[in-house]
Amino acid sequence: MTILLHCAHRIDELGEVPDAWVVFDGGVIAASGSGLSTAPDVPARVDLGGARLVPGFLDLHGHGGGGHAYDDGGAELLAALAAHRAHGTTRSVISLVANPLGKLRERLSEIAALTALDPLVLGSHLEGPFLAPGQRGAHHPDFLRLPDPTALDTLLAAADGTLRQLTLAPELPGALELIGELVASGVTVAVGHTEADLETARAAFDAGARMLTHAFNAMPGIHHRAPGPVLAALDDPRVTLELILDGQHVHPEVAALLFTAAHDADGRGRVALITDAMAAAGAADGDYRLGSLNVSVREGLAVLSGTSRIAGSTLTQDVALRHAIDLVGLPPAVAVAALTAVPARALGLGDRFGLLEPGYAADAVALAPDGSVLRVWADGRELTA
């Protein structure tokens, strides 16, 4: 179906365009421009009445939402995806916490089947099990393990080519060697849940790792005598830095510093805003599970029950965009890019997702002046709540 969206204020990484229009032809953008008089004559027309129109959001890292967890699979996985799609996330990488290998294989196989059926699912992200015990965050310590080529091979086989990302701690024995195998298999490797120092993180990036999992969280911070993995990532234009911008994981002033410092060789931003959302995202406070661990959510803050340890977030990407503009003070085009073009490039998909340009995926979100989501299109179709 061919659809014309018009009378919009378009915002993407390339900048802002008033009185903009975009034509969807099936799942692809066929044309774009400004001024309704220049738009092609398309029978199906949607007047957006001046709403902001941005590319669909791409979440590299999330664990659930709407009261449902990705780790539970089945109907729970589908319901969690639907919750985030209503908030503008049109393409998702499904993250799994550390679990026994048998359960991870089962979930990876299920996600592989879903990826083949649903173009809005980009594949899976293993956040573990090769993590540092001392920086495990909300991962069960019993399910962590040292990097193991045999275990990795079984996980890769279960994912059947749909494992998009794997987070590991590069200081663990055998981790650097594992990075090469992952890269050769088409997996984006992220440094995270780590005790790595500056030199070890740099060695991981030189070995092929290209992301930093939720910068500043579950890793050493930037100390003046021990810069750690954050500075290693900032110093390397090849590396994308994930950031949870919920106002709780990272202070907005620190987030602003990250955006100022992180650019690639072409001057484009390298900070990707993620949700790292658990089941309570878009849902009420209460008691939940993250993997096999109990989580309590009070006033939107998720912590392991009985502790003060943060256990994922309750963030949705439309809220992250508002925080980027209102709390951090980013220009709208920079903020939008952190949810669209930057994560797309991190997965090697920058030629398909992240811009409202011809040839890109027909994914778009119409936003009200207050940043709330009005309408969502994905793969050329409007999504309904």
**Number of domain modules:** 2
Biggest pleated sheet: 8 strands, mixed
The structural class is alpha/beta
- Unreliable stretches, pLDDT < 50, 5 or more residues? none
Approximate shape: globular
What is the CATH topology descriptor of the largest domain? TIM Barrel
Let me know the number of strands. 21
Summed up, the helix count is 10
Radius of gyration, in angstroms, nearest whole number? 20 Å
Quote the average pLDDT.
Answer: 96
Q: What is the CATH architecture assignment of the largest domain?
A: Alpha-Beta Barrel
Comma- or semicolon-separated keywords:
alpha/beta; Urease, subunit C, domain 1; 29% strand; 10 helices; 26% helix; eight-stranded parallel β-sheet; globular; 21 strands; TIM Barrel; eight-stranded mixed β-sheet; 385 residues
